[in-house]
């Protein structure tokens, strides 16, 4: 009994307990034609944390998160090897229900992508394709998710207005509300504030720090200061390889790799 207890403690110390992770990536590679975009990626995404991915342009950041809900599937001459395990299953298994996967792993893009519909219909767009909703439930879903992204007070009096009438920052929060309405287990964000002004950016950052209490978030950013404000876990990727990953506090204060130190201090990477 004592020996078993010791073994269990050792496993916990090395972080082998999958209960704490929402997603596990092992030996993952991506080629587009002959171009090796991602090389032997190994990564775990912790629950109820913000994992920030940083790295220079062309390093593979977007390819990585787009692989997590298979948005890259339509890319011509795409080849994938390795595993991305979500809910205990490899998402690249032939039996995977892609529509279900994308409802459980939501995606927010660099530029807000609102539909040519009303504000309320934008929030309901995804969930209405999954189930029938009566008017009372629909209103509650709209209100709850707009409140979650701090948009309710700004738009509650104009829910029937076109979504395109909102500011760019409001549109991005609306896109996040639309994602939340599906109750995903994981939210992927590919530089969602890069086209926003500083005020809108800080508003979304503040919102994300609240949302991580209920959601697991992967956030790609070029902005190192933004990563400092948001990240629980930090991943530095360059030339398709993970150079270093770990707690944000550790990497920002005392990284193990000189390339990580150079990038975080000078935004320079000699990969």
Protein architecture, described:
- The structure is a single chain.
- By secondary structure, this protein is α/β, with parallel strands linked by helices.
- It has one domain (2-266): 3-Layer(aba) Sandwich (Rossmann fold), CATH 3.40.50.
- Helices cover 38% and strands 25% of the residues.
- The chain has eleven helices and ten strands.
- The strands form two sheets. Strands 6-7-8-3-9-10 form a six-stranded mixed beta sheet, with helices on both faces. A four-stranded antiparallel beta sheet has the order 2-1-4-5, with helices on one face.
- A hairpin with a 2-residue loop joins strand 1 and strand 2.
- Helix 4 crosses helix 5, helix 4 runs parallel beside helix 7 and helix 5 packs across helix 7 (168-180).
- The radius of gyration is 20 Å and the shape is globular.
- The model is unreliable at 1-16 (pLDDT under 50).
How would you summarize the topology of this molecule?
Layout: H1 2-13, E1 21-32, E2 35-46, E3 50-54, H2 61-68, E4 78-86, E5 89-90, H3 98-104, E6 105-108, H4 119-128, H5 135-148, H6 152-155, H7 168-180, E7 186-190, H8 198-211, E8 216-220, H9 224-230, E9 233-238, E10 241-247, H10 248-253, H11 258-266
Parallel strand pairs: 3-8, 3-9, 6-7, 7-8
Antiparallel strand pairs: 1-2, 1-4, 4-5, 9-10
Helix pairs in contact: 4-5, 4-7, 5-7
């Amino acid at each position: 009994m004592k020996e078993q207890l010791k073994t269990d403690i050792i496993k916990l110390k090395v972080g082998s307990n999958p209960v704490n992770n929402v997603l596990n990536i092992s030996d993952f590679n991506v080629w587009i034609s002959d171009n090796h975009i991602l090389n032997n990626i190994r990564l775990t995404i912790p629950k109820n944390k913000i994992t920030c991915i940083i790295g220079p342009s062309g390093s593979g950041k977007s390819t990585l998160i787009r692989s997590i809900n298979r948005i890259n599937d339509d890319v011509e001459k795409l080849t994938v090897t390795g595993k991305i395990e979500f809910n205990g299953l490899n998402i690249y298994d032939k039996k995977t229900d892609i529509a279900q996967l994308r409802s459980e792993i939501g995606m927010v893009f660099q530029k807000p992508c609102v539909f040519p519909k009303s504000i309320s219909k934008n929030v309901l767009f995804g969930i209405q394709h999954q189930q029938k909703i009566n008017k009372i439930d629909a209103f509650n879903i709209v209100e709850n998710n707009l409140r979650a992204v701090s948009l309710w007070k700004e738009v509650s009096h104009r829910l029937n207005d076109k979504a395109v009438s909102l500011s760019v920052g409001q549109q991005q929060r609306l896109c996040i509300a639309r994602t939340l309405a599906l109750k995903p287990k994981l939210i992927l964000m590919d530089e969602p504030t890069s086209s926003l002004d500083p005020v809108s950016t800080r508003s979304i950052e503040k919102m994300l720090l609240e949302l991580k209490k209920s959601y697991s978030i992967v956030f790609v950013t070029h902005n190192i200061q933004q990563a400092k404000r948001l990240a629980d876990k930090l991943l530095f990727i360059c030339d398709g390889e993970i150079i270093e990953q770990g707690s944000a506090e550790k990497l920002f204060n005392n990284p193990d790799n000189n390339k990580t130190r150079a990038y975080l201090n000078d935004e320079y990477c000699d990969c």
